[in-house]
């Protein structure tokens, strides 16, 4: 086999869909995301007319409808960013571990970030949103390493079910610790109860500006890891034989996933199942090539969380159902389906 042939093996091995079909699916994702954005701006506890939307986009806030639109725009942008980040994080985690059950929520990474933020506020007196993000990323990284280490113990190494069970147990333990820290502290309990559920109701341009640099870095790292993830999909030995530095590729991609997960959790709370549901759905549409899969998960994740936020606002008017509850209702049956599949051992 020539050097040129060797370099092309990963791309040839993962080419499962014609490029035209993939492009069409990406364009469809853009259209769905645009529809979700419009629905998020128009629908809610108070529906608004298109005239109010255009007036609010021009800066007008003279009526209740225009003020509602002005408030929904940053909320919509935050929902898109968080949904895209969680979906991309899940897709990269699945690629790094070759585990179809990998998801920031299922593996306990979200709750690790949550526990770190709660402890930082309660014991260290953290008050800066930027500090929340750094602490959350650290907690997410420690949780990810801990769960993978526990899931690797025993015969067979880190099988998908063992890692998922370790993640579920760790997530439950961390959730209990979060409650133990928050409940005695009346000064922080009220705000953290809503944050723990997961939601984007507090979206603002200021909050977006604080988290955007971290998310941008995470997006860049993950998307640039696509070719390396294609090589890892062939197995560590084959990837090493093709010249990939397996440990570096895996660590770099995992870093990007942890940054996305930690930053998202810091601003929106622990939202589960987006990172599980979206990559599996996109894999059916565009195939397993990560150069196409990762961008498609970004679009689909943004659309899913934005639509879920709209459903939560419309479902219980004039109250709201937090988006974390909506995604749990959607994702839990899908998780059960994945667990029951016969080919759940590896991607």
UniProtKB/TrEMBL annotation:
Keywords: Cell membrane, Membrane, Transmembrane, Transmembrane helix, Transport
TM annotation in the entry: 23-42, 76-93, 105-124, 131-151, 163-183, 211-233, 253-280, 292-315, 321-339
Keyword Transmembrane helix: yes
Bilayer disposition of the protein: Multi-pass membrane protein
Compartments, as annotated in UniProt: Cell membrane
InterPro entries: ABC_BtuC-like, ABC_transptr_permease_BtuC
Pfam families, per database record: FecCD
Taxonomic superkingdom: Bacteria
Family: Belongs to the binding-protein-dependent transport system permease family. FecCD subfamily.
Name recorded for this polypeptide: FecCD family ABC transporter permease
Source organism of this protein record: Actinomadura sediminis
């Amino acid at each position: 086999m020539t050097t040129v042939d060797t370099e092309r093996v990963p791309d040839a091995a993962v080419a499962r869909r014609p490029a035209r079909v993939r492009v069409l699916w990406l364009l469809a994702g853009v259209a769905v995301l645009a529809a979700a954005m419009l629905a998020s701006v128009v629908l809610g506890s108070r529906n608004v007319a298109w005239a109010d939307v255009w007036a609010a986009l021009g800066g007008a806030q003279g009526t209740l409808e225009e003020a509602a639109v002005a408030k929904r725009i940053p909320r919509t942008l935050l929902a898109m960013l968080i949904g895209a980040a969680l979906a991309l994080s899940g897709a990269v985690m699945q690629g790094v571990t070759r585990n179809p059950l990998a998801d920031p929520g299922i593996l306990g990474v979200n709750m690790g970030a949550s526990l770190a933020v709660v402890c930082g506020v309660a014991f260290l007196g953290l008050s800066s949103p930027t500090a929340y993000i750094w602490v959350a990323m650290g907690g997410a990284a420690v949780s990810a390493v801990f769960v993978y280490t526990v899931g690797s113990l025993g015969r067979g190494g880190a099988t998908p079910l063992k890692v998922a069970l370790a993640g579920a147990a760790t997530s439950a333990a961390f959730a209990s610790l979060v409650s133990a820290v928050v409940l005695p502290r009346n000064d922080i309990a009220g705000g953290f109860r809503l944050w723990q559920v997961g939601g984007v109701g507090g979206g603002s341009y200021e909050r977006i500006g604080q988290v955007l640099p971290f998310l941008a870095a995470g997006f860049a790292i993950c998307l640039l890891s696509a070719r390396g993830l294609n090589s890892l999909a062939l197995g560590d030995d084959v990837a090493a034989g093709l010249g990939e530095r397996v440990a570096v590729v895996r660590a770099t991609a995992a870093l990007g996933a942890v940054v996305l997960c930690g930053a998202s959790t810091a601003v929106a709370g622990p939202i589960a199942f987006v990172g599980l549901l979206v990559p599996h759905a996109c894999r059916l549409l565009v195939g397993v090539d990560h150069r196409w899969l990762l961008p498609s998960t970004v679009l689909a994740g943004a659309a899913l969380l934005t639509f879920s936020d709209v459903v939560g606002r419309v479902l219980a008017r004039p109250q709201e159902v937090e988006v974390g509850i909506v995604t749990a209702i959607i994702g839990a049956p899908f998780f059960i389906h994945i667990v029951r599949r016969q080919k759940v051992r590896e991607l």
